[in-house]
Structure formats: structure tokens, C-alpha cells
Amino acid sequence: MTALILHGGAGARRERNYDREVGHMREVVEAMKARLDAGASALDVAVEAVTMLEDSGLYVAGRGASPNLAGAFELDASLMDGATRKAGAVAALQGFRNPIVAARAVMDHTPHVMLAGEGAALFALDQGLEPIADEEAWFTRAGQGEDNHPPGTLSHGTVGCCVLDGAGRLAAATSTAGVFGKMPGRVGDTPIPGAGSWADGRVAVSGTGQGEYFIRVAACAQLGWRVEAGQSLAEAAAAVIGQIGDLGGDGGLIALDRHGAIAQPFNSQGMKRAWLTPGGEIGVEVFGR
């Protein structure tokens, strides 16, 4: 049995057309279905899916990133392998194409969980990861103006993927450029395992939204602990988004359990997401619940 769910960020506006994103998310799910059918691991598929989302330029991650207040592009990413509880992350990474690939390298080739800033960039260079030669030409600034927040508030965008593979392993990966107009050096939930990503033997989770609130409630790990304590996946996911809303934050999350069940709650206008069921059915949605 295999299953997958991915997101292209919460905060979609009803007046915008998302046909390109819908078509692209379907393509990603179809490609990852083929990988799972061929026996690929959950961790590999999660990273590959997020890499495709980063490279598309359609979402506020990777190529679609928006700059911070100083005009720099600082990118964050994390991933977690449920079978081993290993995790890798980069924060405020500049100058490299795929932060999720850098996060995977941190997991695989260092004793650490997270590298940040200049240290993350030096490590990415040492690992031979692909640099960005011309930022002005590369970045599409895909999500500028997408969220329905007034200027000065935490408008946001992120991508992520949760995967269950044929061996019963779970994994999650998340990537972002952070909130729009962020202060230089700002780090949100995305690169923090437990806040922006989580995977264990029961669930895989990826968050998207105003990261400061996801950090404050340990959103993704909390969902996992709720399931461990006996709540259903749907109950746990709704409770976490409810807490974020109670604090005044918005966003959403995607979650997948070891039985192939999915949850996708959000309290923003919309959340771009697509999924593959254990029965092989593919779904894509932006605004419907």
C-alpha cells in the first residue's frame, strides 16, 4: 500500500486562477506514483516531490521565492524520516537552487540536524549542490500578493509532501522562502522538525502558514503525539489548526498516517494540495474542504 499528499501553500485567493498550479500538482503526484510503484522509499519520494515544486517557480519556495526586506532570498527546508526519526534542515540558505536537497545532505552527511546562513551555504558548496548563477533571472517571485493579509502582516507560502511507501515507511519534507517582506535572518517553522515537518511510525505531517504560530504550538509534532495518544488523524489535525487559529494565526497542514488516511485542514481562504490514495486515485483541490 502506498499513499501521498502534497501542498503548494495555504493562503490562496479566490479571485486568482490556479489552473497552472492544479495541473502541475497533478503532474507531480503522477510522477511520484510511478516512483512508489517502482519501489522508491518514502524519503526519496518526499524529497523528489518537493524538488519538483521548488523548481516549478509556481509556489513560494525554491524558484518561486520572494525576497526579504533587504532584497535577499533566504530559503528554508526540512525533512524527516519516520522509520529512523532522522531529520535534516537548512535555514536562511542563500545562493542555491534546491534547499530541500541541501537539507537531505545535512541529514545524510553530517552529525547535525540543521545548518543555517553562511554555514549552510558553505556546506552546500562543499557538497557540490547546484548554485544559482543569476538570482534576478532565476527567481519568479511566484506568490507576491497571494495572501489576503494587509501590508506588514505575515503573508506566507510554502510547499511540502508526506509519503507512505510500500514498506510502510513514512516521511515528510517542507520548503519555503518564508513570509513576504520578512526581516533578514527571520526563521519560521519550515526548517524546524516538529514545527514545520514531522514523521514517525504513525504519521507524516507538513505545515504551511504563519510559521511563528506553528512554532508556538509545535504544530506538526503535536499532531503526531495526539495520534499516538489515541486521537484519529482528522481529529488531531483539526485540533492543531484550531489552536493556531485561537492564537490569531492562519494556515493549514497536510498529514498522512500509516494506514493511508489523509487530513488537510486549513483556516485560510484556500490551500493548494493534491493527493494519491491507497487505491490509486489522484485528487487536486485549492478551495474545497
Structure, described:
The protein has 289 residues and is an alpha+beta fold. Helices cover 31% and strands 24% of the residues. The strands form 2 sheets. It has an 8-stranded mixed β-sheet with strand order 4-3-2-6-5-1-11-12. It has a 4-stranded antiparallel β-sheet with strand order 7-8-9-10. The radius of gyration is 17 Å and the shape is globular.
What are the salient characteristics of this protein?
12 strands; 8 helices; eight-stranded mixed beta sheet; 289 residues; 24% strand
In short:
The protein has 289 residues and is an alpha+beta fold. It has helices at residues 19-37, 42-56, 99-109, 117-126, 135-138, 211-216, 219-228, 233-246; strands spanning 3-10, 75-81, 86-93, 114-116, 158-164, 170-176, 197-199, 203-209, 251-257, 262-263, 271-276, 282-285.
Low-confidence stretches: 148-154
By oligomeric state, this entry counts as: single chain
Shape: globular
Radius of gyration equals 17 Å
**Tally of individual helices:** 8
Cross-sheet strand order for the largest sheet: 4-3-2-6-5-1-11-12
List how many beta strands DSSP finds: 12
Task: Write the element-wise H/E pattern from the N-terminal end onward.
Answer: EHHEEHEHHEEEEHHHEEEE
Average pLDDT for all residues: 93
- Given helix and strand content, the structural type is alpha+beta
What is the makeup of the main sheet? 8 strands, mixed
State the helical fraction.
25-40%
Strand content: 15-25%
Distance between the termini: 25 Å
